[in-house]
């Protein structure tokens, strides 16, 4: 019985990683020349935990996205914030991000550190 529970837990973690990985890759594909994110690719079962700027907890959930000064050029419109149930820190400062800050950022219920400074976002910050 406990073996079955371990297998089920591993499947849940793998599904969570895939969802986070897919969200990150979708956002990467929307960016202009995302060269600093070259490690962001699914190869032979790699998880986003080994990608540049991504940190995970022991369960394999993304808990930190730290991409300050990474020459990221684009918007946040394609980043599905609801995929990151355990994200506690998001640092995208000093990049070339523009447009508005999507209201979906409010889905980051565990977020306790947010730095979007030194970008070209509009003046509106969603509730």
TrEMBL record:
Q: Where is the signal peptide?
A: 1-16
Q: Which GO terms describe its cellular component?
A: membrane
Q: List the Pfam families hit by this protein, alphabetically.
A: LRRNT_2
Give the record's keywords alphabetically: Kinase, Leucine-rich repeat, Membrane, Receptor, Repeat, Signal, Transferase
Is DNA-binding found in the keyword set? no
SUPFAM superfamilies in the cross-refs: L domain-like
The molecular function GO annotations come to: kinase activity
Protein origin, superkingdom: Eukaryota
The UniProt record lists the Leucine-rich repeat-containing N-terminal plant-type domain at: 19-57
Q: Which Gene3D superfamilies match?
A: Ribonuclease Inhibitor (3.80.10.10)
Localization terms from the record: Membrane
Q: Which InterPro entries match?
A: DNA_repair-toleration, LRR_dom_sf, LRR_N_plant-typ
Keyword Kinase present in the record's keywords: the answer is yes
Chief place of localization: membrane
**Protein name, entry field:** Leucine-rich receptor-like protein kinase family protein
* Source organism (scientific name): Rhynchospora pubera
Organism placement in taxonomy: Eukaryota, Viridiplantae, Streptophyta, Embryophyta, Tracheophyta
């Amino acid at each position: 019985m406990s073996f079955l529970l371990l297998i089920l837990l591993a499947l849940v973690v793998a599904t969570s990683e895939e969802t986070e990985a897919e969200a990150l890759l979708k956002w990467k594909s929307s960016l202009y020349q995302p060269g600093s994110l070259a490690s962001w690719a699914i190869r032979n079962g790699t998880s986003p935990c080994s990608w540049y700027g991504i940190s995970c907890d022991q369960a394999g959930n993304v808990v930190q996205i730290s991409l300050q000064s990474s020459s990221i050029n684009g918007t946040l419109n394609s980043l599905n914030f609801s995929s990151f149930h355990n994200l506690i820190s998001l640092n995208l400062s000093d990049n070339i991000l523009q447009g508005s800050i999507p209201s979906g950022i409010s889905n980051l219920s565990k977020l306790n550190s947010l730095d979007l400074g030194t970008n070209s976002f509009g003046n509106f910050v969603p509730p």
